[in-house]
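RECORD TYPE: inverse folding
INPUT: structure tokens
STRUCTURE:
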């Protein structure tokens, strides 16, 4: 799922390319992507885009009196068209969820690969009407040390779970929580209460800030590949850790996995992987 650095890159790109332009048409390619009915999506036809912003991992296209809140889900992304395709959109065919046509002739799609369709678009008069926005915790790059310390001290969960909980700290997902914990040399299974919160917050800012800086001036089509190149442990199971040379390990869950370095993060010990444990019985 796109996280804070990638969504900030999309926001920067869209601000430069769509603010001041007008929506001429919105085509729905996947009905399930629409989570609101009032006002209708057609209400944005003819409206000027006044801004683009981010809350957590959500991208928001702003109009006068309306917000289009876009949440990408795990396989979601934004596809930019210098010249938007003019052919009819076939409902339920392919990854296309929503296509926005602009008066300039350009446009962009909200797409989602795979068969699971969890991306969402909500057109609202107040972005707080979207529960994920209303319940979002402090942004990962703006949360202060006192807030961060209190968040960790008040949790009984593992540190990786806390970093990914959007109601506690917004903007961090599976990939960058792996990267943050690797850089901080903390086990993803460590109790949040026992972590040095101020030191970890500095690492959060460092990792997310560097990632954002590396992506911020790229067009959408190049952001995903650039993100992947910058990851040191996430998605690199079986490879050598670039810091200590240990083999990067993985813990798998029902619908996702985390990666970590035993040498850097767990004193050389492998974390319990329930899926693998069952296979080895």
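DESIGNED SEQUENCE:
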């Amino acid at each position: 799922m796109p996280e804070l650095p990638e969504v900030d890159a999309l926001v920067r790109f869209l601000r430069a390319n769509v603010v001041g332009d007008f929506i001429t048409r919105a085509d729905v390619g996947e009905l399930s992507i629409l989570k609101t009915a009032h006002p209708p999506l057609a209400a944005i036809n003819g409206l000027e885009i006044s801004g683009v912003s981010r809350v957590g991992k959500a991208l928001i296209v702003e109009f006068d009196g309306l917000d289009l809140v876009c949440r990408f889900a795990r396989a979601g992304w934004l596809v930019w068209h210098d010249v938007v395709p003019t052919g009819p959109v076939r409902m339920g065919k392919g990854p296309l969820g929503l296509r926005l046509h602009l008066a300039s002739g350009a446009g962009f799609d909200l797409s989602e690969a795979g068969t699971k369709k969890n991306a969402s678009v909500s057109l609202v008069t107040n972005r707080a009407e979207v529960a994920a926005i209303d319940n979002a915790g402090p942004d990962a790059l703006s949360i202060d040390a006192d807030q961060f310390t209190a968040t960790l001290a008040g949790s009984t969960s593992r540190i990786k779970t806390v970093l990914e909980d959007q109601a506690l700290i917004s903007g961090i997902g599976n990939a960058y929580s792996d990267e943050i914990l690797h850089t901080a040399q903390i086990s993803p299974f460590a109790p949040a209460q026992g972590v040095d919160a101020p030191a970890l917050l500095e690492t959060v800012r460092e990792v997310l800030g560097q990632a954002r800086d590396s992506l911020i001036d790229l067009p959408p089509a190049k952001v995903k590949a650039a993100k992947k190149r910058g990851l040191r442990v996430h998605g690199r199971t079986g490879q050598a850790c670039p810091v200590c040379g240990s083999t990067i390990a993985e813990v798998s869950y029902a619908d996702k996995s985390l990666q970590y370095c035993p040498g850097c993060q767990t004193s050389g010990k492998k974390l319990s992987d329930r899926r693998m444990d069952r296979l080895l019985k």
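NOTES: Confidence is low (pLDDT under 50) at residues 276-281.
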